[in-house]
Amino acid sequence: MYQIKCLNPISPLGMELFSDQYQVTEDTAAANAILVRSASMHDMELGDGLDAVARAGAGVNNIPLEKCAEKGIVVFNTPGANANGVKEAVIAGLLIAARDIIGGVNWVQSVKDDPDVAKLVEKGKKQFAGNEIKGKKIGVIGLGAIGVLVANACNRLGMEVYGYDPFISVEAAWNLSRDIHHISNLDDIYANCDYITIHVPLMDSTKKMINEASFYKMKSGVVLLNFARDLLVDEDALEAAIAHGKIKKYVTDFPNAKTANMANVIAIPHLGASTEESEDNCAMMAVRELRDFLENGNITHSVNYPDCSMGVCTCAGRIAVNHRNIPNMIAQLTSVCAADGVNIQDMINKSKGDWAYTMLDLSAPASEKMVNDIRSIQGIVKVRVIK
């Protein structure tokens, strides 16, 4: 029986995908897997029996990835599951930045009790006039699951779309409209676009990627949208760019003490993926990933270990090994199997940075001695008997 701990409420449509082999537990120490949305795990004690963490969403900054890798805990996320919800929020942000809808609505509320409110509206509406987005140029930085949907939607709305992603996947490229200008230099977006929207993951290499130098290259009066992560933008440089008129509006889904108090900032309370559909999709994907890993040893959409799959085991035995990505590991694993008189019928080894993952399909179930001998190899982190 697998024990599952939920750190946040998880959509019933996802939880229903667990079979009767699974049981929800309140005891974190007893959990084989954790399902999480926004709860922070950085100060949590991670038990030795914990094999996996699945984030029902894309961002994993609330999970200690390296700490998990060192303990052989595979961390999953659900890229693309909430993409449509975020795309629609971006389009909403685009429209409310182009037209001062929020300002107008708030003004109506301030005069709603006046008997002549209808006349006031006709006289006062001009102060909230804006621009249409049709025919305007928008730069989409990052063409992953969300960025592609945003680019295609803006194209259908009549905008001229510039897309930038030096690491675009084959799948994303196939899904991208042929009308999108796929550019290789960010400066082309800065120099040409009236709107810029960011859709890249937060990493050391992307932190504050939109900075003083970026703002200097942009057209005056550009609208910047950020539904990815707040730390992608240097907020001190942003404040100066707004003050000097470089940035007309900044639309962010991640308000903080600084941006929430800035002029010309439209701060949305992290609603990008806050739809029933997104929560359902993320939960279902996360549960499927956990089940395939726990039952078959397969890894799909991990952020700290390599993706690795051998389908359902049809041999007598299967073991899965988390280990450091160091030389001579495969030779040592095969030597242990040979010493135990067990033939390896199939195997797969994948690596990702400092970490690697190996699955072995065996002619006989792994003995306790074989498992202990593998655990004793330097660099081995965890050994699981799948079958």
What does this structure look like?
The protein is α/β, with parallel strands linked by helices and 387 residues long. The protein has helices at 12-15, 65-70, 83-98, 101-111, 117-124, 145-156, 170-175, 186-192, 212-217, 235-243, 276-296, 329-339, 368-375, and strands at residues 2-6, 22-24, 33-36, 52-55, 74-76, 137-141, 160-164, 181-183, 195-198, 222-226, 247-252, 265-267, 317-324, 344-352, 355-362, 380-385. The strands form three sheets. It has a seven-stranded parallel beta sheet, sandwiched between helices. A five-stranded parallel beta sheet has the order 2-1-3-4-5. Helix 9 links the parallel strand 9 and strand 10. Helix 3 packs across helix 6. The longest helix has 21 residues, at 276-296. The two termini are 14 Å apart. The model has no long low-confidence stretch (mean pLDDT 96).
Biggest sheet character: 7 strands, parallel
**Strand order, sheet with most strands:** 8-7-6-9-10-11-12
Helix content: 25-40%
The arrangement of helices and strands along the chain is EHEEEHEHHHEHEHEHEHEHEEHEHEEHE
Range of strand content: 15-25%
- Choose one word for the global shape: elongated
Q: Tell how many strands the DSSP assignment holds.
A: 16
Protein topology:
Elements (H helix, E strand, L loop, with lengths): L1 E5 L5 H4 L6 E3 L8 E4 L15 E4 L9 H6 L3 E3 L6 H16 L2 H11 L5 H8 L12 E5 L3 H12 L3 E5 L5 H6 L5 E3 L2 H7 L2 E4 L13 H6 L4 E5 L8 H9 L3 E6 L12 E3 L8 H21 L20 E8 L4 H11 L4 E9 L2 E8 L5 H8 L4 E6 L2
Parallel strand pairs: 1-2, 1-3, 3-4, 4-5, 6-7, 6-9, 7-8, 9-10, 10-11, 11-12
Antiparallel strand pairs: 13-15, 13-16, 14-15
Helix pairs in contact: 3-6
